[in-house]
Automatic annotation (TrEMBL):
Belongs to the methylenetetrahydrofolate reductase family. It comes from Mariprofundus ferrinatatus. Pathway: Amino-acid biosynthesis; L-methionine biosynthesis via de novo pathway; One-carbon metabolism; tetrahydrofolate interconversion. One of its GO terms (molecular function) is methylenetetrahydrofolate reductase (NADH) activity. This is Methylenetetrahydrofolate reductase. InterPro entries: FAD-linked_oxidoreductase-like, Mehydrof_redctse-like, MTHF_reductase_bac. SUPFAM superfamilies: FAD-linked oxidoreductase. Its cofactor is FAD. PANTHER family: METHYLENETETRAHYDROFOLATE REDUCTASE, METHYLENETETRAHYDROFOLATE REDUCTASE (NADPH). Keywords: Amino-acid biosynthesis, FAD, Flavoprotein, Methionine biosynthesis, NAD, Oxidoreductase.
Length: 291
């Protein structure tokens, strides 16, 4: 089903999940087990990332196509501008259309390994805003985009810049935005209010990262610009070498965060599953009264 239809027909907040294309056969088997387990909570849509540097183009395409054909879930394919010309992107989109894939999460992407900043290839796009406009011309896709309640790490003008570009993404044809993960709900509420004031009317869906490995989250966060609040450090640091305790606390904190977001009008929750089902299922179980 198209994301735009899922969003417009929703009379309750949506619960969705994100996966990444694994690199090994074992990882692939694990992904399909995880997807099957998550079918039990009936996610409104499931998204599949596109590897840094465009390295997973075929795997992303293969997985979203199989999700559509075999599970009855509505897939969203992530797509970045990295390393691709307009013509190459056009060919990939034609393949998606032929396979019946209707939903794209349009991104700029990050610099490929070995490069310290993103650079568009000749004949390619520099920003997600351009990719979104291109997608609108290419076919009947429903388009999601990314946004950053605490600011994208490269934004010179901070969150204000990101809001300006988010409005441009909406004007160019995006149907909804999914946020980078964050742990401080107040940052999301402030961001949402500023988006409202800037005329952004599309749903802004919070991205939720259940913590399963605190050291890994600290590393991710330093790269993607998500803040780890002092209270989170205080609670996680003393138990960070006990995986079960971290996972248990990670679920408790995510449930509390999700409940507060939903009580304050969030249109949905997008769970970064990291291809593991247990935390997402446990969170869903505890917040399903809101969904
Ligand atoms: P953009 O919106 O283009 O923003 C990049 C920078 O340029 C920002 O600083 C912004 O303020 C600025 N900017 C934006 N538009 C303009 C403009 N028109 N003119 C001038 N400046 C502008 N990465 C992957 O490689 N694969 C994935 O599958 C993937 N999935 C993601 C899913 C979500 C929900 C999120 C939040 C991120 C994801 N990322 C993924 C990471 C993303 O690629 C990086 O954060 C990347 O650095 C920025 O992508 P973007 O689409 O937000 O870029």
């Amino acid at each position: 089903m198209k994301l735009s239809e899922i969003l417009s027909s929703a009379n309750k907040p949506l619960f969705s999940c994100e996966f990444f294309p694994p690199k090994t056969d074992k990882g692939e088997e694990n992904l399909w087990n995880c997807l099957r387990e998550l079918q039990a909570v009936n996610p409104a849509y499931v998204s599949v990332t596109y590897g840094a540097g465009g390295t997973t183009q075929d795997r992303t395409k293969g997985i979203v196509t199989r999700i559509k054909d075999e599970t009855g879930l509505s897939p969203v394919a992530h797509l970045t501008c990295v390393g691709a010309t307009k013509e190459q992107l056009g060919e990939l989109l034609a393949d998606y259309q032929a396979a019946g894939i209707q939903n794209i999460l349009a991104l700029r992407g990050d610099a490929p390994e070995g490069m310290d900043r993103f650079e568009a290839v000749a004949g390619g796009f520099s920003h997600a805003t351009d990719l979104i406009a291109f997608l609108r011309e290419q076919g009947d896709f429903s388009i999601a985009c990314a946004t950053y309640p605490e600011g994208h790490p490269e934004s010179k003008g901070g969150v204000r810049d990101d809001i300006r570009y988010l409005k441009m993404k909406q004007d160019n044809g995006a149907d909804c935005a999914i946020t980078q993960y964050f742990f401080d709900n107040e940052a999301f509420f402030r961001f949402r209010d500023s988006c409202d004031a800037a005329g952004i009317t599309m749903p802004i869906i919070p991205g939720i990262m259940p913590i399963g490995n605190f050291d890994q989250i600290v590393r991710f966060s330093s790269m993607c610009g998500a803040t780890i609040p002092a209270w989170l450090h205080e609670q996680m640091s003393p138990i960070s070498d006990n995986p079960d305790a971290v996972a248990g606390l990670g679920i408790e904190l995510a449930v509390k965060q999700c409940a507060e977001l939903l009580e304050n009008g969030a249109p949905g929750l997008h769970i970064y599953t990291l291809n593991k089902s247990a935390a997402s299922i446990a969170i869903h179980e505890r917040i399903r009264g809101y969904l």
